[in-house]
Each structure stands twice: as structure tokens, then as C-alpha cells.
Amino acid sequence: MPLISAVSEATDVALESSTTDAVAAEARAGLTAYPRTLAPWLFYDETGSRLFEQITQLPEYYLTRTERSIFAAHADEIIEHASHNGHGLPPTLTLIELGAGTATKTGILLAAAVRRQGTVVYQPVDVSVTALEAATENIRANVPGVTVRCQVADYTSQPLPENRLPNTRTLALYIGSSIGNFSPDAATAVLRNLRAQLLPGDQLLLGTDLSPGPKKKVTTILAAYNDAAGVTAAFNRNILARLNRDLGANFNPEAFAHRALWNAAESRMEMHLVSLAPQRVRIPANSAGGSLSLTFASGEGIHTENSYKFTLGRVEELLSSAAFCLTHTWQDSRHHFAVNLATAI
Ligand code: AVJ
Asked: How far apart are alpha carbons 252 and 254 in whole angstroms?
């Protein structure tokens, strides 16, 4: 990965201290609030990213493999529609990806773009340098014809890459139901931030996990967040282990139970960590403030994640709230997951 390895060492050090400051601020705000919360981005340190990769391979976690199967069945059609949507002559597509991770599913779409237009520029955006290195490595090794241009940024608030080539259109990929971690208002804000970087006629491909329906049972969704092997439980508890590692806190992660529950009123999965006994936890003084002494009653929880599930009506509403117009939806036969194409208006 010559493109980024030259800068990554210096970048890593700068990123590390700014990340630790953000962890300190988030932990203080969330753990002194009532009810207590920790934001899901805290899951994804090195250990958590590895655990998430394991989750995507679990038999119960249908999301990743279902979305991949939709890409495998419809990639050419998706790229074709993205090229013809919007205004004017079919241009060359540039693919940018928000929160690229390791880009394992993206290769299927990139290969289809290469089939259609010969070559393609791919711009993964992620806060994690390690993830961008993995994405670059993966795409360079597996999909010929792709030029990778990495961008280290927080796509929820920072501007996206602006170096647009003439007569190209952007296809922004926001896949994996990552949008599901955000409340309705925050999801609109994330898509508006994206929309602000696009031109009318640019495209968005949005992956959304679907609400329960005739072919999708609540128990299927519950199992995906409470797997038999306990990987999701380990992923959830790792958020406390991370606070120990990054902030010198003294959580005993094993003294908290993993709870996954379905909130029907909000159409979302929730993950919590529930204290198994009365206990006290200390977080030493840090950049965000003085030392914290937290007491947990037995049964008291920390809310660590919401994972919203969408109806197609809700997808359309969310997209239009951010000035996108939904044009196509592809689903698996069981209606578990949807891949949605929208045009920036
Ligand atoms: C990466 C946010 C899509 O909500 O399903 C997996 C994260 N949490 N198991 C999801 C997750 C528990 C995942 N997203």
C-alpha cells in the first residue's frame, strides 16, 4: 500500500491522541448521564474491529451475507442504473465509500464498475488508518482496474474528498446498514452532510436492514445480536475493556451481562451491558476532566447500541429528508435486507 504507508506512521500518532481525547469525552458524557450510554463507535478499536469481522461470519448474523448476496446477484444492474440515473449523458462513475472498513463486499461493485467502464476510481473514507490499509490491500489484490485513493475522515461531520475529475459522477456507498446506528434525526444529519458534498445527479447506494415482516421474524433479528458462540457478547463487553485500555479505567467486563432486546415501538435492536452486582468503577483524571467514581446498582445498565430496522417507506422518507430521491430497491427473497439507490436532487 505505497499510497498510504508513507504517511500512516505519523498519522497514526496524531490520530491516537485525538481518538483518546474523544474516548475520554464520550465516556464521561455517557457514563454520567442517566440512563447511562456509550456510543457504538467506541466498539471499533483493534479488538472490536476483529470481533465485528467474526460477527459478520456467524450463522445468526444474516446482514452481511444477505447484502453480499444482493450485490452478487445485481451488481451489474446496480452500476448500470447508477450510471443512467440523473441528468445528461452516462458519465464515468467514481465510487466513494463511507466507513469503508475492510471493503470486502465493495469488491463486487467495483468489479462491476470495471466491467462497465474499464477502470474505476475508488475513494474509501474511514476514521481508521488500519481499516483503510486493509481495504486498499484487499481491493488492490482482488480487483484489477481500480485506483484506490484513501481518505482519513469522520464522514458523519467532516467534508468528503472534493477532487472530482471532469465528466464523472459520484456513486456514494453507505452499506452494511451502518446508518442503522443513528437515531432518525442523526441519520438525516449524516445523509445531509453527505448530500452537501454531492452534485445533483450524483448517486447514493444505501444498505438497510429491514423491519420484521411476513417473512422476517423478530426471533431472527434477536438471534443475530445474541449468537450462540457469544461473539456479540464479547463485542459488547469489549467497549468496557477499551475504556480500561485507553483510559486506565478498572471495569470488570465479566461483571456485566450482554443484553440484546427488540424495541418494537422504535423498530430497533438495542444492546445493553447490565451490572450483575452492585459495583464501583473508577476512571482516572484525563483530558476531559477529573477522576470519576461510578457506582452501579445490580441490574443497572449501560445502553451501548441502537440498530434501527427499516421499512421501505421509512427508507424513502429518510432519503428525501436529506434531498435524495429513492429510485430502485433490491432485496433478497426473504425480505431481510434492502439495497437502495437514490439520486441527489
Ligand atoms: C455495523 C452497525 C451494522 O448494527 O448490526 C453487529 C453492528 N452490533 N452486532 C449492526 C453490530 C452488534 C452492526 N452495524
From this structure: 5
Instruction: Quick: pLDDT tens for 121-147.
Output: 999 998 888 889 989 999 999 999 999
Q: State the amino acid at position 59 in one-letter form.
A: P
- Number of Cβ within 10 Å of residue 111's Cβ equals 21
Distance of alpha carbon 41 from the chain centroid: 9
- Please name the residue whose Cα sits nearest to atom 12 of ligand 1: 225
Mean per-residue pLDDT for 78-89? 84
173, 107 Cβ separation under 8 angstroms: no
- Phi, psi (deg, nearest 5) at residue 294: -110, 135
User: What's the rounded Cα separation, in Å, for the pair 259 and 253?
Assistant: 13
Q: 10 Å Cβ neighbour count for 160? A: 18
Task: Say what the pLDDT of residue 100 is.
Answer: 82
Ligand 1 pocket, mutate which of 307, 310, 339 (most atoms under 8 A from CB): 307
Helix orientation angle between 231-247 and 46-56, rounded to the nearest 10 degrees: 170
Contacts for 282 with CB less than 8 Å, ≥ 6 apart: 249, 250, 291, 292, 293, 294
Is the Cα dihedral 86, 89, 90, 96 positive or negative?
Answer: negative
Angle in degrees, CA 296, 291, 255, rounded to 5: 30
Concatenated DSSP letters for 116-136?
HHS-EEEEEEES-HHHHHHHH
Residue 300: other Cβ atoms inside 10 A: 18
Determine the distance separating the centroid of ligand 1 and the alpha carbon of 177, expressed in angstroms: 8
- Structure confidence by residue, pLDDT tens digits, 187-207: 999 999 999 999 999 999 999
Q: Is the CB of 180 under 6 A from ligand 1?
A: yes
Distance CA 135, CA 157 (A): 22
Do 264 and 278 contact (CB within 8 A), yes or no?
no
